[in-house]
Write a structure and sequence with these properties.
It is built from 10 helices and 5 strands; from the N terminus they run βααββαβαβαααααα. The protein is α/β, with parallel strands linked by helices and 256 residues long. The protein is globular and about 60 Å long.
Length: 256
């Protein structure tokens, strides 16, 4: 296996908000509040347009021939362009299958905008077969190809009315799901300087995504029952070896 489950966490792009709405001189918190209020007035909800998000964390669960590992890209104080560059550099280096939950609808479009903003090289990701013929019929961009599997999209049969939340599907399968935090709390955590907590939360989300992927692979015949259990055992062993507190909490919830 050579797959790369990923998840991102974002906050309002304060720099863009100041420019869009003429909010120079206001604090970051006040700019974000204004952006969210304008969105609420326009749509009835405060979820910002994707180009108004700034990435503060990208977490990955990487299964390769050498084993399994989960981590967050960069360091807690890394800049956004560094974090996003590391994501696309990983694709260029390993060409893994990408696994996500709503990656087509949220994570990847946000990463498109941020890579564009920072002038990053994402050429391997955008490969459509011009330089590598193997990407002509299986690339990251085509919805019905397998190089990127958006599990939410695939499991819903590509029907919006059939989509389900990551947390509920994880719980349905006996996985831990959300552990005391949700994406709606990311901005508040960021304001309080709790970037480590955001990265920990993102890592547990990506673990849920990867475990659902293993169940999906068993369902479609790419893993038999023994192979599925062996893959789950690899994840457990990796979490034990890693030793970080949030991963031990995840493991305890999974085994409990």
């Amino acid at each position: 296996m050579n797959c790369f489950a990923f998840d991102i966490e974002t906050i309002p792009d304060i720099e863009l908000g100041r420019v869009l709405y003429g909010l120079e001189g206001l604090s970051d918190e006040d700019v974000a509040h204004a952006m969210l209020n304008k969105r609420m007035q326009a749509t009835g909800g405060d979820f910002l347009p994707l180009h108004q998000h700034r990435v503060v964390a990208i977490s990955v669960a990487y299964r390769s021939a050498s084993g399994f590992r989960v981590w967050s890209l960069g360091e807690p104080d890394s800049s956004e362009d560094e974090i996003v560059r590391r994501f696309f550099d990983g694709l260029a280096k390993f060409s893994p299958d990408l696994i996500s939950w709503n990656g087509s609808g949220f994570d990847l479009p946000v990463l498109h905008y941020r890579a564009l903003k920072h002038g990053l090289d994402a050429s391997r990701y955008w490969e459509m077969g011009d330089s590598d013929q193997s990407f002509r019929w299986n690339n990251y961009l085509s919805r019905f190809h397998w190089r990127h599997i958006d599990l939410m999209d695939v499991l819903s049969g590509f029907q919006g009315r059939s989509r389900a939340p990551l947390d509920e599907i994880a719980l349905m399968l006996g996985f831990p799901g959300k552990l005391g935090m949700s994406g709606s709390k990311v901005w508040d955590c960021y304001l309080q300087g709790e970037i480590g907590r955001i990265r920990d939360y993102c890592e547990t989300d990506v673990l849920n995504t990867y475990l659902i992927y293993l169940a999906f692979e068993r369902m479609r015949g790419n893993l038999n029952s023994a192979e599925y259990e062996a893959e789950c055992a690899k994840v457990r062993a990796s979490l034990v070896e890693d030793g970080r507190a949030h991963l031990q909490e995840f493991l305890a919830a999974w085994e409990g």
